[in-house]
Amino acid sequence: MNFFNTIVTALKALKRNPTRALLTTLGIVIGIAAVITMMEIGNGSKTSVRTTIEKMGANTGLILPGWLRRGGVAMGYGSRVSLTPADADAVGRECPSVLHYSPVVRASTQQLIFGNSNWVPQQIYGIAPEYLQIRNWRIAEGRSFTREEMESNARVCVIGATVVRELFGNVSPIDCELRIRDVSFRVVGVLHPKGSNMMGMDEDDVLLAPWTTIRMRITGRKTGTASSTKSTPASKPSELYAATGVALFPEPEASLTTDKLLIPKFTYIDQIVFSASTPAKVKQAEKEITALLRERHRLRPMEDDDFRIRNSSDFMSMLNSTTLLMTNLLLGVALLSLIVGGVGIMNIMLVSVTERTREIGLRMAVGARSSDILKQFLVESIILCLVGGIIGILTGHGAALLINYYLKWPIESSPGAVVAAVGVSVFVGVVFGFYPAWKASKLDPIDALRYE
Amino acid sequence: MSKVSKLIELKDITKTYFLEELSVPVLKGISLEIEQGDYVALMGASGSGKSTLMNILGCLDRPTSGDYFLEGEELGRASGDKRAMIRNRKIGFVFQSFNLLPRTSAIENVIMPLAYTAGGLSAAERRRRGMAALEQVGLTERAFHHPSQLSGGQQQRVAIARALVNRPPLIFADEPTGNLDSKTSIEVMEMFSALNAEGITIILVTHSDEIANYAKRAIRVSDGLVVDGGFK
Lengths: 452, 232
Hints:
In chain A, 52% of the residues lie in helices and 15% in strands. Chain A is an alpha+beta fold. The longest helix of chain A is centred in the last third of the chain and has 44 residues, at 312-355. Chain B has one domain: P-loop containing nucleotide triphosphate hydrolases (Rossmann fold), CATH 3.40.50.300. Chain B is 31% helix and 28% strand. Chain B has helices at 50-57, 80-90, 106-111, 123-136, 152-164, 182-197, 209-212; strands spanning 6-19, 22-35, 39-43, 65-70, 73-74, 91-94, 170-174, 201-206, 217-222, 225-228.
C-alpha cells in the first residue's frame, strides 16, 4: 500500500466519525495553542525589551572613573579623578571595535533662564557631537552643534522637548539665547522626544552643549555644585596625582597657571560614552579599552582598574533572563498539556482499534500485511495530531492577537514556533499512536473476523 | 499432465492447538485435491475441524505439519506477508456476515482490497475495476449507497463483488447464505454458479445439504479427517 493510499484510507476512516475525531484532537489543539500563545507573548516581550534598550543604544558602553579608597573606605564611582579628554581621544583612536566616542561632563542642578521663565533640567551634559549618534538620538528641529563649535568652546546648546515646553512654551526655541547662570547659550537644535527611560526618568528634560564649553565655562569654576565635579585648582598633573609623586606630564609653563583666560591644557571629564560597531562587539571594545586605559594610567598588573566600564548589554541580558524564565516556565506547562493531549489520542485510538477489530480482520483477509495495518493506524493518529496542531496554531495566534488587543501586551509571531508546533504534533502522534497501531497490527485475522 | 490442473493439493495436513499443557488436535492428517474450475462444498458438523481447514485453505492460518500447494506453490510454511499477498491476489472471501465497512459506499468497499495490491493501481483503474465487479453482481446503480441503505442480499452481492475485484482464481464462501432468507439465498447461490461457469473455483463452506447441492461435489469432514470426497 503506497503512502498516498494510506493517507486517503486514514482520512476516510476518520471521516466515518468526525465528532469523535474532533474531540480527540481537542487536547492537542489546546496544548499547541498554549505553546504558540506563550511563544508569541514571550517573543513580543523579548523584542520590546530589546527595542527599549536599542533606543538607549544596545551597542553602547560607559566608562566611569574608579573610586578612591580613603582609610579603607571605598568612596564610590567618580570619587577618583582619572579620565581625561586625551583618554577619550585615545579610546577613539586606538580601539578598533569602538565606532564613536564622546567625553561627557555633567553639570546638573543648574538653573536655565529664558526671559521670565526658569527651569532646572534633570541633566546638563557636556558632550561631543558623536554623543547623539551613540545614544540614537535624533534632532527634531534645527541642528546639532559641530566639532568646530566644540573645539572653540562655542556657547551653543541643544535642548530636550521638556525643556522647550517649560522654558519656551509654544515658541520655537531655535536661535533663542538662554542663560546658565551668567553664561548665555544659543539654542541651535531641539532633540526628538524619547519619553521616559526604564527607570521612569524623563529623558527629554536635558540640555546638551559642547563638553568644552560646559567644562570651561560652567563647571570649571569654583561655584560648581555638589554633584558637579570640580576642576581648575589642579592645573598641574603633579597636583592632581599628588599621591604618586611622579611627573606624569611636562609641567605646564608658569604663564598657563597665572593667566586665567587661557584654558588649562590638562583637565578631566566625568565619563566617556562609546559605541561599538555592533552590539556583539561591545565586549571586545570593553577589553580593548581596559587594556588601553590600564596602559595609559600606568597601572601595575596587580593594581585594580582606576576606571570602570559598564555596558547596556549587561542590563539587557538581565532583563532577558527574567522574561526567558517566565516564558520557559509557561512553555513547560504548555508542553505538559500536550502530553495530556497525547494520552487522550492514545486512549481513543485504543478504543478505535477494539471497535474496528472486524474491519482490521477483514483488511487482513483481503491482503493487508500487518505493516499496512500499523501504518494505517499510525497515520490516523498523526493526522489527528497534525490537524489538531494546525487548529492549535491558528487558535494560539488568535489568542495572542486578542491578548495584544485587550491587554496591550506586545506579541510577535514566531515562524520557528509554528514549525516546532507542527513537529511536536507529529511527534505526539507517532509516540502515542504507536502502541494502539502496533496492537492492531498484531491481531490474528481469524480471531478478528470472528470478533463480535 | 492432465488438461485440468490441480489448483489445490493438501498432503497430510495436521493442526494442533496448544492450550497451556493440553494439546488439542483439530486436523489429524487431511489430504485432498481441488482442480481448477471445480465447485466444492466443504461440509461438516461444528467442531469437526471444518473451519480450521477453511482457514488453512484460505491462507489465514498455518498448518502444524503437512504441505499445502496452491497453484503448485507451497504455502504451509510461508511468511505472514507472503500469505497476505496470496490472499490479496489469488483468493476472494465471502463471509456469512458480509463484513462490509460501515458508512462507506459500496464502490469503496469493493475496491478496498486493491489498495493492498503490490505495485499499486491508479485511482481511475481501481474505480473502473470496482464498477466492473459491481456490474458482474448487478449492482451498478447502487455503487454509491452505504451498506445500511442496502438489503441483505445486496450487501452480500457487494461482498461478492469485493471478492471478485482482484480477479482471483479461487473464491471462499463461508456460510454465504447464513444471514439471508431463502429467496435471496437462491439469488446468491445462482450467482456463485454463474461465476463457477466462468471458470472461477469456488469453495463453499456450509452445513446445509440444500446449499451443498449447488456444488459439483462435496468434501465431508468429521473429527479432523476427510471422510468423503477428498479426491475426485
